[in-house]
């Protein structure tokens, strides 16, 4: 669940953009550390996940697909609302 989180990918996209503008080279692969609190034993567990350029590209694709889907629903909704007015 956590390894698929888009939050780290979003941060990496911003860092890539800013570093490119500043002329700073960044690693294309990086590790993300998630801490999960386990209430049953009252302790944190650390989980490490590797993020790659492929992960970043998949994240961008996912965002684009979601944006397209929202756009379709918005058009359908406005079309439906116009039909109700008639």
| Low-pLDDT segments | none
User: Structural class, from helix and strand content?
Assistant: alpha+beta
What is the share of helical residues?
55-70%
Major beta sheet, strand line-up: 1-2
Helix/strand order? HEEH
How far is the first residue's CA from the last residue's CA?
A: 46 Å
Strand count? 2
Q: What is the overall pLDDT average?
A: 80
- Separate helix tally: 2
* Outline type: flat
> How many distinct folded domains?
1
Radius of gyration: 19 Å
Structure description:
The model has no long low-confidence stretch (mean pLDDT 80). A hairpin with a 4-residue loop joins strand 1 (30-38) and strand 2 (43-51). The chain has a two-stranded antiparallel sheet. It has helices at residues 6-22, 53-85, and strands at residues 30-38, 43-51. By secondary structure, the chain is of the alpha+beta class. It has one domain. The protein starts with 5 loop residues before the first helix and ends with a helix.
How are the elements arranged and paired?
Layout: H1 6-22, E1 30-38, E2 43-51, H2 53-85
Antiparallel strand pairs: 1-2
List key phrases describing it.
two-stranded antiparallel sheet; 86 residues; single chain; 58% helix; 2 helices; alpha+beta; flat
Summarize the structure.
This protein is of the alpha+beta class. The chain contains two helices and two strands; from the N terminus they run αββα.
